UniProtKB/TrEMBL annotation:
Record keyword NADP present: yes
Domain NmrA-like: from-to ranges: 6-252
Keywords, sorted A to Z: NADP
Superkingdom field: Bacteria
Signal peptide extent: none
Species name: Hyalangium rubrum
Stretches of the chain forming a coiled coil according to its record: none
Name the UniProt record assigns to this protein: NmrA/HSCARG family protein
Protein family per UniProt: Belongs to the NmrA-type oxidoreductase family.
SUPFAM superfamilies linked to this entry: NAD(P)-binding Rossmann-fold domains
């Protein structure tokens, strides 16, 4: 097993990139992060973990070239938050930079099932980045996470929890597969450490699968207050702009088809990840004034 000399982590001030940087550090693999705001607290936190922080942006090819010089591996993400077209442009920018730098392994955290016909704009954009990566000749691994457990920590979800509700836009009995970003980090670090086993592969990953009543029951037990599962019709989802349409398409697909990763097989094949259940993740959170 040959560990990479140095991994450049994109999006390290965010959820997935941060988890990957921590997991690589835990394996003793040196990390460089490209960040837009080097003076931000999130960048300071990276430095406290021993991460080299480099200033730059996916919009600035020269900054990508600088941070990749001398590194041998790259963790990449893209987001639709600045637009679907920008997601494709950003991904192509760092794939091209990886090609110029002669990077020997790119791990791209995409989303589960982007290789299927989902009709979700941000899955289509990720598929375009994946295709560009495949065509680039840069050795790669695609990692496809399902719905993040951390989505429960968004202001909207926390407000509803305070009101004793767990809200979803799908039938209550519909099971949703979940993963914690910590396990995305651990899995990706393991992919970097076992490069040969993962080259050219796509692995979709999930840690748990629950319907709304089960999830609400776990929260009720943990928070010491009743949390009711609330199912809203998809038509009531507030669709605003391109991102709103994207979330609505994601919810529609989740209700219709949904994530369907083979969780038992993952647990068997990659036990070192730990694969936390929703209950384990929720127990580890500080719910503050939400818990009685
Ligand atoms: N939530 C889910 O359930 C789920 C499930 C599967 C897949 N996904 C996908 O996961 C992705 C989001 O990942 P995440 O939650 O880790 O994102 P996140 O926490 O919002 O972090 C995004 C990171 O990207 C950086 N970034 C954004 N634009 C940049 C640019 N132009 N140049 C340099 N850095 C830039 C941000 O830097 P700054 O700190 O400077 O902003 C931040 O570090 C999305 O594509 C989403 O579709 C989400």
């Amino acid at each position: 097993m040959r560990q990479p000399r140095q991994v450049v982590v994109l999006g390290a001030t965010g959820q997935q990139g941060g988890a990957v940087a921590r997991a690589l550090r835990d394996r003793g693999i040196p990390v460089r992060a490209l960040v837009r705001t080097p003076e931000a607290p999130a960048a300071e936190r990276l430095r406290s973990w021993g991460v080299e922080v480099w200033a730059g942006s996916w919009e600035d090819p020269a900054s990508l070239d600088r941070v990749l010089a001398g590194a041998d591996a790259l963790f990449g993400i893209t987001t639709p938050f600045e637009g679907i077209a920008a997601e494709v442009r950003h991904g192509i920018a760092w794939v091209e930079a990886a090609r110029r730098a002669g990077i020997s392994h790119v791990v791209y955290a995409s989303a589960a099932h982007t290789d299927e016909s989902t009709g979700i704009p941000s899955f289509e954009s990720k598929r375009k980045v994946e295709q560009h990566l495949r065509d680039s000749g840069v050795p790669f691994t695609l990692v496809g996470p399902v719905y993040f457990m951390e989505n429960l920590l968004t202001p909207f979800a926390l407000t509803r929890l305070r009101e004793g509700q767990y809200v979803r836009w799908m039938p209550p009995e519909k099971t949703v597969q979940l993963i914690t970003v910590e396990d995305i980090g651990r899995f990706c670090a393991s992919v970097f450490a076992h490069r040969e086993d993962f080259l050219g592969r796509r692995v979709d990953i999930a840690g748990d699968a629950l319907n709304a009543p089960l999830l609400a029951a776990i929260l009720s037990r943990l928070l010491g207050r009743t949390v009711q599962p609330v199912s809203l019709p998809l038509e009531s989802f507030p669709v605003e702009g391109e991102l709103g349409r994207n979330v609505a398409a994601t919810l529609a697909w989740m209700a219709r088809t949904g994530f369907h990763v083979d969780i038992p097989a993952l647990r068997r094949q990659y036990p070192e990840v730990g694969w936390r259940t929703f209950a384990q993740w929720a127990e580890a959170q500080d719910w503050g004034e939400l818990s009685r």
